[in-house]
Amino acid sequence: MPAEVVDVVDRGNSKMSEELKFIVFSLMKVGAVAGVMMGMIAYVVLAERRVSAFIQGRLGPNRVGPLGVLQPLADAVKAFFKEDFVPAYTRKVYFWIAPALAMLPPLMAVAVIPFGSRLGGQKMVVADLNVGILYTFSVVSLAVYSIILAGYGSNSKYPFLGSVRGSAQVISYEIAMALSVIPVFMYTGDLNLSAVIGHQTGGIWNWFVFKAPISFIIFLVASFAEANRHPFDFPETENELVAGHNTEYSSIKFAMFFMGEYGNMIAGAAIMATLFFGGWTLPVFGLDKPAETLFVGILHILIFLAKVVVFVVLAIWVRWMWPRFRFDQLMDLGWRRLIPLALANILGTALLLWALN
Asked: Which residues of the chain have pLDDT under 70?
């Protein structure tokens, strides 16, 4: 066989080998991210139950396994084997679609979040999009469709009222959330989340929580409202709407709504850690540079997870320490406080950058 042909064949085989390696590694990252996400959802639920018990002077789940660590497994088995009752008056198609949509947005949102630097020569992000933050906002906004379809499909007054509240709340706070991150991208000039992390290296004062503190505060409040977390859990409000959009659901369908709420909370925590707290970086021992060894690569992933856990614990603490707002207070805070503040923050950042340049 001529040498030229052999060379072409070798290059083709090498290219196929690289593509196969990329596909296999990408599938491994997808599986790892999905697995970690589901595991975190399970144990964040357990953590919330234990923290609430501590605050209220109770013990919380402590019987299934050592210190109750197997309680999430028991809850999952219970959800799977409970009767899946569907009321006769529901709109069946929408009733079934709604819980399936509840879990998709958080899983899709974390796909573009860099959860580490490098491992095995590959970036630790499932999809390194140049418009990562736009993708994230577009995906997160889909969560409201789950609430709307649940209220409409249940064909009952309490779920319908909960879905109306939920849609008004999410639409209102999406505006404030989107406006709050604009100063971050005015500093970086890039919508890629890996680039945003890169701009926060070189010292803790480069983290955007210090450069754009108002943006962080607005984003934090809006993330609670977007995830329907206390003190903004108006789609449910048990003392007024029984369980809101969840009222007619049982068994695994109810569990999917439950998991979706906690998934949104974790996704919001991951976005905040990325945008404002340096993502996987830590400004000590050179940990704000891409990993060159396996140990440092794993350490970066653990640093990112630790930051996410801090925000999750904050969300749990807020739920059990703050009273719920009235609905008119919720809308007033969103439209008359946060949105004007976010616009003023954009103007102030623009003037500051103009003055510095």
From this structure: 1-17, 22, 235, 237-240, 242-244
3-class secondary-structure state, position 131:
coil
Q: Looking at the DSSP assignment, which residues form a beta bridge with residue 123?
A: 118
pLDDT at 203: 82
The predicted pLDDT at position 87 comes to: 76
Which of 204, 228, 171, 215 is CA-nearest to residue 344?
215
- CA 59 to chain CA centroid, Å, is 29
Among 155, 111, 109, 141, residue whose Cα is nearest residue 247: 155
Tokens linked to 333: 């805070």
> Looking at the whole model, is its pTM more than 0.70?
yes
pLDDT number for residue 345: 93
Tokens standing for residue 15: 């290219």
CA–CA separation, 219 vs 107, rounded Å? 20
How far, in whole angstroms, is CA 15 from its chain's centroid? 36
Percentages helix, strand, coil for the chain (3-state, rounded to 5) are 70, 0, 25
> Would you state the structure tokens that stand for residue 137, as one six-digit string?
């906002």
Is 152:89 a contact under the CB 8 Å cutoff?
no
Contacts of 42 (CB under 8 A, 6+ apart): 72, 73, 75, 76
User: What pLDDT is stored for residue 6 in this prediction?
Assistant: 44
